[in-house]
Amino acid sequence: MFNIDQPDSAPDNEDHDGDVVMHGQGSFFGRRKGHKLRAHQADLIENLLPHLSLQIDSPAPEPLTTLFDPPVEHMRLEIGFGGGEHLIAEALAHPDTGFIGAEPYVNGMAKILARIEAENIRNIRLFAGDASELLAWVPAGSLARIDLIHPDPWPKRRHWKRRFVQDATVAAMARALTPHGEFRFVCDIDGYTAWTLAHLLRAPCFDWLAQRADDWRKPWPNYTMTRYGRKAEREGRRANYLRFERL
């Protein structure tokens, strides 16, 4: 199916949804800022983001659902939300669920803030930093789902240690997820899909939910395609959609 030793087709730092990856003891990989922000975007970063941004230098509330007023029923996390298309769609479709979006890329943060303001979305909180530190901050068993959609594949072998999916982050996700919670992964680079599948299959806390080929070849129901996903399709790259259940 997938060959983990097969070189990937994407170049380093291609415009994936997760344009920036930060993980591993505060390590920072990638660009923190791209194009110059427009005046309104800069205003949103300065004035709206502080109201939505999580500060993890103090303990997380327990239960985590009390981040929102009134409290929500469930909590979910999207790591590296890019332009925010998927996160916004999920938040609008599930108003009783609280969402945390982790994205250290400033331009991506500005884009999602504009959508949050325009649509008056109240069930999203944002984190502009290292997603592995955020996973360590949330209480154990507090997240119903974690999404990682089109992350940077870091295709060169010497850079594989920079991929978000590592044994340590898989263990961190297992701690943060509720029993029967899910980790969902979307990628159009076979090498990173195989890498992720190998890491999750050897993790005793996760079960791969696929029962037939279409379960990974086709998106799950009501999946919102991102701008990078559309770009990959135009360029002839086929994505795979992996779902893992927390045992």
Structure summary:
By secondary structure, the chain is an alpha/beta fold.
Describe the structure.
- The chain is of the alpha/beta class.
- The chain has helices at residues 39-47, 49-52, 85-93, 106-119, 131-137, 167-176, 190-201, 214-217, 227-234; strands spanning 20-22, 28-30, 74-79, 97-102, 124-127, 143-149, 177-187, 206-208, 240-246.
- The strands form two sheets. It has a seven-stranded mixed beta sheet with strand order 5-4-3-6-7-9-8, sandwiched between helices. A two-stranded antiparallel sheet has the order 1-2.
Helix content: 25-40%
Counting DSSP H or I runs of 4 or more residues, the number of helices is: 9
Which percent range describes the beta-strand content? Answer: 15-25%
The low-pLDDT segments are: 4-15, 18-31
> In total, how many beta strands?
9
> Biggest sheet: strands side by side, in what order?
5-4-3-6-7-9-8
Taken in chain order, the helices and strands follow as EEHHEHEHEHEHEHEHHE
Q: Please identify the structural class as seen in this structure.
A: alpha/beta
What does the largest sheet look like?
A: 7 strands, mixed
Radius of gyration equals 17 Å
Inertia-based shape: globular
Q: What is the residue-averaged pLDDT?
A: 89
End-to-end gap: 25 Å
